[in-house]
Amino acid sequence: MRISVITPTLNQGEFIEETIRSVVSQDHPDVEHIVIDGGSSDGTQDILARYPHLRWLSERDTGQSNAINKGFRMATGDVVAWLNSDDYYDRNILGAVNGYFESHPGCMMLYGDITYVSREGRALYTLTGESISYDALLLSPDIVRQPSSFWRKQALEDLGGLDERLHLVMDFDLILRCARKQRPQYIAKNLSFFRWYDQSKTATMMGKQARELYRVYRKNGVRLGYRQYRLLLGRYLDSLSRHNPVRTGFSLFRKRGAPA
Question: What is the model's pTM?
Answer without folding.
Answer: 0.89
